[in-house]
Amino acid sequence: MSEHKTFYITTPIYYPSDKLHIGHSYTTVACDALARFKRMQGYDVMFLTGTDEHGQKIQDKAADAGVTPKEYVDKIVATVKDLWKLLDVSYDRFIRTTDDYHMESCQKIFTKLYEQGDIYKGEYIGHYCKPCESFWTDSQLVDGKCPDCGREVYDAHEEAYFFKTSKYADRLLKLYEENPQFIQPESRKNEMIAFIKQGLQDTCVSRTSVKWGIPVPFDPKHTMYVWVDALSNYISALGYGNEKYHDYDKFWPADLHMVGKEILRFHTILWPAMLMALDLPLPKRVFGHGWLLMNGGKMSKSVGNVVDPVILCDRYGVDAIRYFLLREIPFGNDGMFTNEALITRINSDLANDLGNLLSRTVAMCEKYFGGTVHNVAGTEAIDTELETMVNELTAKVTADMDSLTIPQALMEIFAVIQRANKYIDETAPWALAKDEANKARLESVLYHLCEALRVCGILLNAYLPTTAPKMMEQLGLDASALDLTKTTYGVQETYTVHKGEALFPRIDVAKEIAHLKEEDEKRKAAAEASNKAKAEAEKKAAAPAEESTVDFTHEEEIDFDTFCKVELRVAEVRACENLKESKKLLHLTVFDGERERCILSGIAKWFKPEDLIGKKIGIVCNLAPRPMMKGKYVSEGMIFAADTADGGCSIAFYGDDTPVGSRIH
Asked: Is residue 548 predicted with pLDDT exceeding 70?
């Protein structure tokens, strides 16, 4: 393969409003398998993923959490990167829409489109779906709700900039007609054509009511609408409009945008229209895959049916989860996640078929030939059949990967694995071993099995990157044997095998299903409790305010200079104990950054010593020492505490990242 042959593949950039679930993992693992396979073919691959971090939903989530939007997304993005590392995702670049270089590119794109007349200022009157970050007209709503997600919308009326999407309607229809591969699967293309023909509206591309986003450079009271920001990532990540990277000319246009079907419209209408306006090449293919459903519905944290891929990987192994995602879901259609389906796939395909074939083959090589077998030609029709299947396998898998039918590619590989298992039963090596005259035949049989395993291992490397090297190791080969140019039967002349651990231990189905069902019930119960607490909080917030029980008796007014004499600092509680002489007081030893001091506080009724030790609290530092308990103790300060509505007490604790001794203002 010549060095200039490139392949650019992208996942959608994920919205970090919460931790990602198994559905997000499905998209990314599929892209990873494609990227790995293209690398095996000799392509220079750019595999891009990332996070879409702006918009109203993030702004609201951060406000609810009491942090800035950037602080909120930073924590979620860290979990995303950890998940991709766990799942062995071999991305080449990770973009965040909060990255400076991306923001620079977006502002240049927006300005260019405005200056050439493709973006204009107007007024938006309609509806907005916050979960989808989508604007809708009355006619587009379904039963008064968002046509994409079915949730409530709210009325929106504000000054906004618009992109002339309608200007490109005819060009988009022509694009679909002349490039039938542009939108896949075919059924999705028909949906886009129908959407355009019903009357394509110009797209609202800015907000004035949402501040968390990229400012419009020539009108900073406007923030770029999240989809213009998000879609531009595919070229900004290559260096378009910035000096961070210089890969645009090498990799654009993208060979494949992989997205969920719910955002296909943005990628096949708005995105190509933007590129047409910028006079840039269009991506070659956009694939809108289906959803991974659970109990017939889309995964939702509020329903409690979200499946955590980290838990599954820890329990069953990363490659088992990768295999299930790639094999079980019909590519392009919705797929169902059930615990039973997962366990069945692991047991039948990975433990019984693949794992059993390897362990049986290695064990027989060691038992009958001391571990070393050589290339001995086959003499029977079943030998030729297996050899032919091995030799045809790479072409079949390549065709499936090119057509994005990933489950079919795995089916082809496992057809050879299943045939090899049947080959063992047909040749009965244990029977051949009883007669020395059959030694050549026995060696030929075992060599055929080793070759089938070797070629399947090479091809499985794109899907099971941890398992394939383990297979090679047991066959006595190293990682260099995972070479797609060496998938012809007979390339490896000799094997010296080494028995290893089972690739995929068999799972006790009944016991495991019971465990998973119990975990599912816990998850649902937690979701129901959370929803109930949220509903009660909203009900309370909406209820008329109760008459306050707070004592508003005021102290004598002091001037600012007097107040400034009070020294307030953060201190760490190093020791705390109850006093024998008082049921009311706690004896605290606190460190204020310079020295330890004793403080007696009347909070023993509400706090135990272990509740406070190691915590950071606020104290008054320059209060004159006060003898207490008839002079037995001297309290050198006062801690911050507040009365609660139920007659209790609350203390303000400071985070671990707050330095001891910090001034409180």
From this structure: no
Burial of 543 (0-12, 13-18, 19+ CB in 10 A): exposed
Residue 546 has pLDDT above 80, yes or no: no
254 has pLDDT over 60: yes
Q: Give 307-314 contacts, CB < 8 A, sequence gap 24+.
A: 307/21, 307/22, 307/337, 308/19, 308/21, 308/22, 309/20, 309/21, 309/22, 309/25, 309/83, 309/86, 309/87, 310/83, 310/86, 311/519, 312/22, 312/342, 313/86, 313/87
**Burial bucket for residue 341 (CB in 10 Å: 0-12, 13-18, 19+):** middle
DSSP-assigned states of every residue in 396-429: HHHHHHHTT-HHHHHHHHHHHHHHHHHHHHHH-H
**Letter for the amino acid at 139?**
S
Helix ranges, 603-654 (H): 609-612
Residue type, 372: T
- Give the alpha-carbon dihedral of 289, 256, 132, 534, to 10 degrees: 70
Cβ neighbours around 218 below 10 Å, total:
11
Q: Measured between alpha carbons, how far is 13 from 274 in angstroms, rounded to an integer?
A: 18
- Buried-exposed string 364-386: b where 16+ CB fall within 10 A, e elsewhere: bbbebbeeebebbebeeeebeeb
DSSP string, 648-660: -EE-PEEPTTSPT
In DSSP terms, 576 is beta-bridged to: 588
pTM (predicted TM-score):
0.76
Task: List, as residue ranges, the binding site.
Answer: 129, 132, 146, 149
- Given this model, what pLDDT does residue 160 score? 93
Q: Please report how the helices 69-86 and 56-65 are oriented relative to each other, as an axis angle in degrees rounded to 10.
A: 100
Strand extents, DSSP E, 415-507 = 494-496
SS3 of 368, please? Answer: helix
What percent helix, strand, coil does the chain show, rounded to 5? 45, 20, 35
131-156 tens-digit pLDDT:
766 777 777 788 888 877 777 887 87
Where do we find the tokens 């995929």? 504
Quick check: bond before 185 cis, omega within 30? yes
The CA-atom distances, in angstroms, between 463 and each of 136, 407, 479 are 40, 11, 15
Q: Which residues are registered as beta bridge partners of 258?
A: 287
Residues tagged in the binding site annotation for Zn(2+) = 129, 132, 146, 149
φ, ψ dihedrals at 601, nearest 5°: -135, 135
Cα separation, 72 vs 5, in Å, equals 40
